[in-house]
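Fold it.
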Amino acid sequence: MSKSKKTLKKMASQKILYIMIVPCIIYTFIFSYYPLSGWIMAFQNYKPAKGYSGSKFVGFDQFRFLFGDIEFWRSVRNTLAMSVMNLVFGFVFAIVFALLLNEIKSVKFKRITQTVSYLPHFLSWIIVCSLVSNMLSTNDGAINNFLMGIGIIDEPILWLGKQKYFWWITTFANIWKETGWNSIIYIAAITGIDQALYEAAELDGANRFQKMWHVTLPGIKSTIIVLLIMNLGWVLNASFEVPYILGSGLLQDVSQTIDIFVLKYGMSIGNYSLATAAGIFKSVISLILVFTTNAIANKLGENSLM
């Protein structure tokens, strides 16, 4: 039997699975691939009234203007800074939390801790940002009251009015909200480690920290690498909500991300072509990062996406 006939026979035996995946394919095409036709706006002086066919084609003029705009590069800097900080601290906190949770011997206490750590994930960013704003308020905010109470500061700090604090505030807001949720996959990976390895390490005299370092971490290394590759693809997708909600006019130089730049030019100013060009730039860079990281992982002989 030829290879093509074998393939067709195998597909026929799994026809139920192919039928089940059809809705997913249709959904992905409608909401992920079909909108890519709108990228043509980046090469036009797009006017909604004229549509794609009636708008003037201007080639790469929008990209030339974009790459010469200092405000755009400031947005790229802010996006990269916040994304890298979220990625690094988010990864470290989620992994450490999963490792520490794994060391809890009381099953009941472990379940309660897990449940409590997941809850912030289900809060909207509006609520989270309101909590952050209230805690950092100069008018009876919990953080300022605490620092003044223990004598570290003499007067309230305007946390949300000074640029040097903003990136750290957004980073720790993300960590507080997502650490518990992000740790789920690491906890699942840890449960898959052969318990015989821990017993062997204990026989060799390893303490709890040494077992964590020499058994648990190597056991979830492949999971960490795959998630790192996937998250690098989103490195230019710094949380839109936090910078947008907490970033006042005083903080625009450090709070405006690429997404806010796109919103500003696309919706507020009506320059849809420039906004689309910025969106394409972000997508292309993200794609390059994913393929580059994946290639490096393959070169080092680690698990990868492809």
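The longest strand covers residues 44-45.
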